[in-house]
Amino acid sequence: MSDPAGYTVGWICALPVEYIAAQEFLDEEHDRPSFVSPNDANDYTLGKMGEHNVVIAVLPDGEYGTASAASVATNMLSSFHNIRIGLMVGIGGGASRGSESGVFQYDFGKSIQDQSFQQARFLNQPPAILRAAMAGIRTQYERKGHQLEEAINGIFGKNMRLRRKYKRPEPMTDRLFLPEVIHHQADCAKCAVDPSTLVLRSERADDEDNPAIHYGLIASGNQLMKNALIRDQLAAEKDVLCFEMEAAGLMNTFPCLVIRGICDYSDSHKNKEWQGYAAMVAAAYAKDLLKRIPLNRIEAEERISAVVSEELKGIQHQLDQAYSQNERHFSEQKARVLTDQQRRCYQVFKIVNYAEQKNINPNRAKGTCRWAFQSSEYIRWWESNCNDLLWVSADPGCGKSVLVRSIIDDYSETSHPAVRICYFFFKDNDEQNNLATALCSVLHQLFSQQPHLLQYAIPAWEKNGRLLRQEVDELWRILIAATSADISCKTICIFDALDECCETDQRRLIEKLEAFHRQPSSSTEGTCLKFLVTSRPYDHIQDHFRVITDSFPHIHIKGEEQNDQIHDEIDLVVRIRVRELVETVPLSTELHHRIEQQLLQMKHRTYLWLHLAIDDIRTTFKNSLRPTEDLITLIPPSVNAAYEKILCRVPADLMDRVKKILEIIVAARRPLTIREMAMALGIATSSGSPTTKQAGLDPINLDSKLRRWCGLFVFTNNSKIYLIHQTAREFLIAKNNSSNLNPSYWNSLTDAEDQMAEICLRYLLMEDLEYDEDDSRPYTRSFLEYSAAHWPDHVRKMGLTSTQKETYRVHRLYDMTDKPFSMWFPIFWKTVRPYRETSVMSALHLAAFNGHEQEVHLILGGDKSDVNTPDDTGIYPVIWASLNGHDRTVELLLERGADVNAQGGGYGNALQAACAKGHDKIAQILLERGADVNAQGRRYGNALQAACTEGHDTIAQILLERGADVNAQGGVYGNALQAACSSGYDTIAQMLLERGADINAQGGIYGNALQAACSSGHDTIAQMLLERGADVNAQGGVYGNALLAACSSRYNTITQMLLERGADVNT
User: Fold this and answer.
1) According to the record, where are the ANK repeats (predicted)?
2) How many other CB atoms are there within 10 angstroms of residue 786's CB atom?
């Protein structure tokens, strides 16, 4: 990790496109900071440019303006105290040439009736050291010209992925319209049909710099400049060069030089075409500027935090002043002062980088996704002003995630103060495949936009602390309560790729969406919560959704039934991609036409297939002796055929290496970083290396090597490694049983798990790892976090016949007296039990926890004395194994004398633990071995209540058939019926009532079942209870009665139901 004290240059970007450009110009990229200020929510990239250590930060996704920039700068200075100079680098809108340099705030002023708007503030000049360097580089460029274009092309040479978005657009797209010409909403090209609407400009001469560098005044404000008449007025009055939205928030509290690449002309004809290139030019200039400043000259500068200490003391006042002008932006709410308690609560919800996960998906091509956008279901959903739900299903590769990113990005560009948008992209890895993480991410976005809504989360946070991250029901309750209370605001919540979420959580989310959709909206006018969910049209998901779609057919867009329309859109993109191909591959007109027609005639066309096919054509042209013949005959007809061709192109001498790479990526529990891959692949390809220094590969340029070796099959994003698409993983795994198996590049998922287990085991036992904390090669320990956290899972998934060497390695890691254990165990425990203190347990407890039956067998040997000894939390080995679902380990422990009814720990006994977690096979094993089905104790009271609390209806039925007492009292909820009613499981509640549950039984936190259902807003269950004779006025519990429970959470539908059934308002 990097020490924040070593960084002297602060660099701030407003947009991701600027952040990417800045990162690409780093000569070295460093590890993330070792620590930041507790209240610092910025994302940082650290590295070196020339001699200087630079810290780069970007504004939060979707936020713009002076206030947000000031907030990011303040956080940066609080974490990086030694920053001496600052840069604000990015894009802006152009005006006319100017002469005076600096920044002025054009929307900070006063409006006087019948007079023009009067600007009131010119802001501080950039520091002298930066102005001097600017003068020097200006002289250098005038004498010798600049090399900015060459520097940018050098970036593309190292990272071809960026070329399309960041290269210089065609000159014909650089249009300056007369100020009175207003943008045509359909297409900007239509604005230019009449040449008289354009300002005629002469081309730059050969002896002029291109791009040209201008020096002058920048106008900064919270309102996006899109009015050419006001632009020209300010340009004439103030000699303004450029308009932007952040610099005014920095100049008086973060003295810096503002560098802007011009991407449009500050008029209504805005477009994104020039943004990437403009960001690259600005970053290239900034790097040139830094290289002119000697290191010792920067170190001699006073720290910015000292220079502006007085300004920093009053920064909240300035932020409030700026936010008062910008009611249209999210930043207004974020500027409100948060207490330390609120900040700590807010930070609990940030688990993953959801913006990065969104941006992995490509941008939507113009004219596509109309199959969704133009459907009556989507239009109805988008325009509705009440609680609503839309499910979009489509086949793989049809652009669902692109559609979702487009909705989010389009909203961010045209944000409305009364609309909030929050999102999460599910992925089939341990970081993105669960509902709790998704809800935390959604809430973090919501609270970023509306901090005052934290009041609805703080009580649950005070009760649960960081454990709140795991409490799906509580997180859902917070989301519903907070969005319902956000008066006159529409909240849009999007979940993409539900099919990649774990199946248990798929069902849970759909159940919650069903209950939400059936709950009549009781919100005030303009206040609503709308969900959009995308997935593949899998049968089990359709079955879960069927209850809703049968009753409300308008909530489902069936993309899989819109293949003709999707194909028409893909045809549009085919023509675009072939035209782009012609720019890089010298194709004749005839061949251009033949390729286009061949692609258009393919039956199974998807966006993913097209992406792969175009890359295949480009590669074929480069490598074929007769490309004009091969291009047509060998175009892959399907996605899988394209995958096969990519991998079959791998040279024979590289095949084993590529196979190891693919096995590592597929088996990894999350996307690996470049440095982690360097170590993992190094170990996989060096069987005898005893140290990390000998085994590890150099991570520099490894990303480009991976692309060269694996083709389009693998890509990197933000230094993490991914397969091109989820279908690539499915293609490889399906090869297990394929008759067309090519064992050269893939064997089986079991082999992949075997390899990852061996890599992790060897790494953790390497001789130099334990002594290497201060090693000069920091990537030596780069694989420690991953291997320590995940080696037990990889070992558990190994083939049943592990070698003696691997058994020995596992046994060494369980040696609690050895140094490897002291390294891996704290990291592992923090990963699997992040909200629990580290337990003091024996190797047997830990092996049972991990489900390593071979190690359990080895530890026990002929000695059974430890099998019935609890750890420091009172939990026995058989309880740990039951809790985590390790059935073979449970059987082994029972065979070795484990007490099936041993009491201890938070779950009480093994049966309760298995029932709470839904492990029905283990519950059956325990019952057959004599587990007491009615044993009492701890949180759930008994096994039946544990199953009912967590919604495991199959287990509840098993327990009832085995003699569980349906009215047994105990636990938090008092009895099983209250547990089911509180959690909203109506099927289980009905089952319990049919088995004789007492509908009016008293006890537990809610007093009775009706109050339990009413307190959580479950109107269907409340109605069922009332129809079966529940006492509407029964007293007891935390709320006193059901009516007060419903009223306290503002469940108006239930309140009305209770009153109609005779609830006494005076009790």
Assistant:
1) 873-905, 909-938, 939-971, 975-1004, 1008-1037
2) 23
**Same structural domain for residues 1023 and 880?**
no
**For residue range 308-365, what is the model confidence (pLDDT) as tens digits?**
655 444 444 444 444 444 444 444 444 344 677 888 899 999 999 898 899 888 888 8
Q: Let me know whether 891 and 819 are in one domain.
A: no
Distances from the Cα of 559 to the Cαs of 375, 941, 958, in angstroms?
A: 10, 47, 40
Range of the structural domain that residue 105 is part of: 4-110+125-309
> Alpha-carbon dihedral of residues 635, 636, 638, 641, nearest 10 degrees?
180
Count the alpha carbons within 13 Å of 907 in the hemisphere toward its beta carbon: 26
Residues 894 and 1016 in one domain: no
Strand 217-220 with 28-29, pairing: unpaired
Task: Say yes or no: 928 and 1019 in one domain.
Answer: no
> Is the peptide bond prior to 637 cis by the omega test (within 30 degrees of 0)?
no
Reference 240, options 274, 267, 215; nearest CA is 215
How many CA atoms are closer than 13 Å to the CA of 275, on its beta-carbon side?
13
Looking at the structure of the chain, the number of domains it has is: 6
Residue 503: its pLDDT value, please? 87
In a domain, 320, yes or no: no
On whether both 862 and 818 belong to a single domain, the answer is: no
Where residue 97 falls (left for φ over 0; alpha for ψ -120 to 50; beta otherwise) is: beta
Dist CA 918 CA 912 (whole Å): 10
Q: pLDDT tens digits, residue range 963-1011?
A: 999 999 988 899 999 999 998 898 999 999 999 999 999 988 899 999 9
Instruction: Annotate 374-402 with DSSP letters as a single string.
Output: TSHHHHHHHH--SSEEEEEE--TTSSHHH
DSSP helix/strand/coil, 595? helix
Strand partners, 279: none
Contact 746, 735 (CB under 8 A): yes
Strand partners, 255: none
| 1013 and 955 housed in the same domain | no
Provide, for the chain, the percentages of residues in helix, strand and coil under a 3-state DSSP scheme, each rounded to the nearest 5: 50, 10, 35
pLDDT in tens, 185-219: 555 555 655 666 777 776 777 767 788 898 888 88
CATH of the domain at 464: 3.40.50.300
Q: List all residues 6 or more positions away from 459 whose beta carbon is below 8 Å from its beta carbon.
A: none
Domain contains 643:
no
Name the residue among 827, 830, 895, 820 with its Cα closest to residue 857.
Answer: 895
